[in-house]
# Entry
Amino acid sequence: MAAFYAALKAALASIAADRSGSIDKYLEVTHEKTDRALIEAILARPDFTFGIEPVGALQLARLMKRVGLLKQEPASWKDFFAGALHAGQGS
# Structure
């Protein structure tokens, strides 16, 4: 798991460092037909971020508890995510 998360962090850093080149690689590998300008606009949005730590997961888990999908409410997002992520700023 630690190796996977390290590779994922490296990939995210690479995308941040060379957004245009990353879009080129993505389009080449996936043969995606989405307009490049749309992908660029999505990646440039300040409210659209990429990371490996969960964001809003605890809020979702609390909702799941209230509606009966979980028997026990977690105290933290760390209760249900891999230990390798615990050093991050998840929620």
